[in-house]
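Structure, all two chains, one model.
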Amino acid sequence: MAVITASTPDRVRTLERSAFAGVLTREATLFKRFWRSSAFGSVVEPTINLLAFGFGFGALVSTVAGLPYIQFIGTGMVALSVLFSSVFSGMYDTYVKRLYQRTYDGILATPVDVHELFLAEASWIAVRSGVFGCAPLIIAMAFGLPPSWGMLAVPFIGALTGFGFALMGMWFSALVPSIDSFTYVQSALVTPLLLISGIYFPITGFPQWVQTLAEINPLYHCVNLVRDAVFGWQWSAVGDVAVLAVFGALMAVLAVRSLRTKLID
Amino acid sequence: MAAPSSVGIVTTPPPALVLRAVVKDFDEVRAVDGLDLEVPAGICMGLLGPNGAGKSTTMRMLTGQAIPTAGTIEVLGYEVPRRSKQARARMGVVPQRENLDDDLTVRQNIELWATLLRVPRHERDEAVDRALAAAQLTDRQGSRAVTLSGGMKRRLLIARALVHDPQLVLLDEPTVGLDPQVRGDIWTLIDRLRSEGVTILMSTHYIEEAERLCDDVAVVSHGQVIARGTPSALVAEHAGVEALEVYGPPARLVEVEELVAAQGFSTRRTGPSVSVLRAEALPGSLLDRLGDGVRRPANLEDVFVLLTGERLED
């Protein structure tokens, strides 16, 4: 959007607070109605994973990377929870709202531009992911994870990660030919991302080239940050934050650009 | 309902809409082909044309949801698409395809649009109440949108678009797919808006809708405005006063068409009959050979068929 000269009384900013507020109000209203189902998926899945791996696998190995396994997996599950509550919302909800419910056609006829619409929706998903991401941590605490001040950073780590993955899902929603194609995304992308993220086991056991791949996996950096926050910060955290920020910015550009071509003729 | 606009002492308000030589191409297809249209403030303007004439594309260009390939568009004085956001803040858009939030209540649906359309917080409740009342949905405000009938959903779509007292309302085929009596309810609603001085641009392929509601009609065919005027002036100019509908078996209808064409008059098929246009001017000799028929007033459909050779309603 062009910025209108200051002399014009009704100049328009590139990102307007009213546009954001409108989109966020919609999300909040719908969330009030659907928070149970939305929270259920994002919290229960990681919880089951946490308990199953924590006790099942934890019975075989006492410590992983110097941590009791339940604490290792408990902190890792934060990333899984964040990923599930962001990328799938970004893919399915955006696809359904664009093509089935035609919600976006309606919103874009109000004073909301494409980039404001999707950045606002991604921000909402990001906040939600940050909150849901804390669930595994709380459960792990019930199983002996010692509380620490650094844990207060976990929702922010979750939100930063969720922002990028929400936009990645939105980007895919504009690329896929049909809603069934998300199955491919899930098998070919989401599952590998999970396995080379260090959630379930350290990536140090992988060959070097897989470890190099992990360096460009945003989820890996999310896992690192969460473990840092819980067990003690390291300087590498700065790099992790930087990767997640670049990931978010890149996905924002790609998602907005491709959704704009789909929504604006 | 009509907001006192900020034009102040200006006596003749600027036109609500100006489209000049607007072209819109989709890949190989030219949907809008040099469309010119100026709509003065305060009237109900009808875009009359068959499906595929370019009406919906034109509507989408007015909100910046389609970018013209060529030409210029001004909406409420704002150049579109460059300043479409300011224009959108001052207009209400009623889409052809229902896109309500099904799981929210009627009231919540309007409240959301009040936020999106930037009604100040302290005025929101009152604005929503007013929109509910205008669409006669006050009693149903607590119902979920999914439970509404087709007519009520359409009224809710209109109410939602009126919540911020827009200066301009775009209605894309406002009664398509509705029962006749429900259509009447929507017409009443639109007519009230018009009487309040809101500028309305309405696309339709229903003749009766255009004749009843529109102060001015632009006949659109193949992406161009091919005629423009009040419904009665258009009819008088292009289709005369009366049409004579002659009934008979198919062979007879073909014979009638040939007879009439030979004398330089126009006909069009109207279901099981042939309508002979400008019947008031038919010479007696021809009338005798046509035999009995039903005389009816000429209408916009006659105009449309005469001008384009196409039918409006399928």
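Confidence is low (pLDDT under 50) at residues 1-9 of chain A.
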